[in-house]
Amino acid sequence: MLMTVMLVSQLCLSVVMGMYFFLQMKSQHSNQSFIEKESKRELERLHKLNKIKLTEPLTERSRPRSVKEIVGQEDGIRALRSALCGKNPQHILIYGPPGVGKTAASRVVLDEAKKNPESPFKDFSKFVEVDATTMQFDERSFADPLIGSVHDPIYQGAGAYGPAGVPQPKEGAVTRAHGGVLFIDEIGELPSQQLNKLLKVLEDRRVYFDSAYYSRDNKDIPPHIHEMFKNGLPADFRLIGATTRMPEELPPALRSRCVEIFFRSLSVPEIKKIAADAARKTDSEFGDEIFDFVAAFADNGRDAVNIVQSAESVSRLEKHPRVELQDVEWVVETGKYSPRYEKKLSAEKHIGRVSGLAVFGRDMGCTLDIEAVAHKCGEGCGKTTVTGAIDEEEISNNRQKLKRKSSISASVRNMETVMKQLGIPVEDYEIHINFPNSMPVDGPSAGIAIFCAVYSAIKEIPIEGTTVLTGELSVCGEVYGVGEVPLKVRAAIDAGAKKIIIPAANRQQSFDKLDAEIIAVDSIQQVMKAVMPPKKEKTAGFLPKKSENIGIISAEGVEIFKKK
After folding, report:
1. How would you classify residue 44: left for phi > 0, otherwise alpha for psi between -120 and 50, otherwise beta?
2. Cα dihedral sign, 532-536-539-542
3. β-strand 392-396 against 401-405: which pairing, if any?
4. Secondary structure in 3-state letters for 477-506
5. Are the C-beta atoms of 450 and 412 separated by less than 8 Å?
6. Catalytic residue, candidates 170, 459, 488, 529
7. Among residues 366, 363, 343, 345, which one has the least CA distance to residue 354?
8. What are the backbone angles phi and psi of residue 275, rounded to the nearest 5°?
9. Are 113 and 90 in contact (CB under 8 A)?
């Protein structure tokens, strides 16, 4: 009886287990069938999506494909080549405003480096581009698309090895760029913890992983994962970081590992060329005056291409036979574009008015108007008034805000001291110095220009409108070097300057090739000789009749006074 009961029980258990496995197999087959059907539908949907294509944006069609197609940035391209195309390429930081070609230049220079037999870059070397503002970084290291991370088996995304309890390393952008270039746009926006990890990768040229779920004695872990945890993933690449920030806003640890290259803002002729090149890649006809107008409002190449594309779209929608100036004007007006600061010098002579040189924004040189008026008053009752100069500016970085006082007042005091040394009693004159348009003035670099404006006003000696000056004036009458002179010289030439006075300390051989007379000086006597040269004939003919004294500087720099 007992034996019968046991046999019946075993039979029932076998039937139950058989039914269970049958149902499981049937369910699995049903699920597999469902997955296959769903996958088939999704594949059909993806194929339909892939067949849908819009027209290629003009910005993509206008993207440079070679170094020759990049407008401007000659110095930046040369620096990129020297840092990337040689036998031992370096890590690079590129500073510059948006839309001036930092990314495009990096791409084409890497392509050029691949053609150099001495370069370690090969045909298969990749250009991996990421944006630091979109790098979704998890401080717990669950996800790090830049450096890489480990998907532990208990977390979502563990992959096929998750159910088996196997941690799975996932490569990041640094490994995908192995053997090539990793381009990080807006690198200054990387979180400090992620940036420190990147610096470690630059040192080791490998990425190492760690996980509490990994054991080197676990034989269930596949060999390739053992290899990843033991030796890490390769990450031997060259970093190119681009940023619109200033150098002092980036960590010194990053800057010390990289060659720093500066891309400048594009000039008006360069913006005009970019706009014209973009227009040629459309199917519409443009007038030449349109590109001048675009260049007057576009700050960079990207803006220029966008204005051209929008104007062409408006023209086509309104059935114009060609793109008219009014179409571009409408785009500029609705887009709220601001006009670029652009000034052309006049050859006309003026008393008490000179053109200095300055830098505004990040790296834009410009001419700076300086006006001076001097009236003789009672002995010792004169004073000097300065208007129009921005006396204070705020400098911000990611750590603090600083306020910097302009040194314009110091330059005025130095001018007065030098005037007295030349025998000119400035204390007997009411002097008014004005900087029109409220342009930011860096006092030291405007020193010799301020002196010439005041001297011209007191002595009533006219100065050529196409003469520009930059340089610091000391209390001893010496001219000291100043910063950003190449930018200033380029801006002066663009404005139509024929004679450019610069400190001797800033003299460069490259200036000899420029289409202007560059005069390097180291004393105020040399400045006056260059700006207000002595004439053999009588000079009273072009001076106002009320003048009592005519100031002339001899060839030796000694002031001579003559009665009218």
Report:
1. alpha
2. negative
3. antiparallel
4. CEEECCCCHHHHHHHHHHCCCCEEEEEHHH
5. yes
6. 488
7. 345
8. -65, -40
9. no
Q: Of 146-160, 227-241, 550-564, give the range with the top mean pLDDT.
A: 227-241
Residue located via tokens 């690449």 = 237
Apex CA 129: angle with CA 126 and CA 131, to 5°?
Answer: 165
411 has catalytic annotation:
no
pTM above 0.85, yes or no: no
Classify residue 81 as exposed, middle or buried by CB count within 10 Å of its CB (0-12, 13-18, 19+): middle
The number of angstroms, rounded, from the C-alpha of 558 to the middle of its chain's C-alpha atoms is: 47
Cα–Cα distance measured from residue 234 to residue 231, given in angstroms and rounded to the nearest whole number:
9
pLDDT tens digits along 461-483: 999 999 999 999 999 999 999 88
From the candidates 355, 445, 456, 459, give the one annotated as an active-site residue.
445
pLDDT digits (tens, 9 = 90+) for 279-305: 998 888 888 789 999 999 998 899 999
DSSP, res 427: G
Which residue, chain included where needed, has tokens 């640094």? Answer: 174
Q: Phi-psi bin for 117: left (phi > 0), alpha (psi -120 to 50), beta?
A: alpha
**Packing angle, helices 301-317 and 268-280, rounded to 10:** 40
122 DSSP assignment: -
* Residue 488 is among the residues annotated as catalytic for this protein: yes
Residue spans of beta strands (DSSP E) within 350-485: 350-351, 353-360, 364-376, 383-387, 392-396, 401-405, 429-434, 462-463, 467-469, 472-473, 479-480
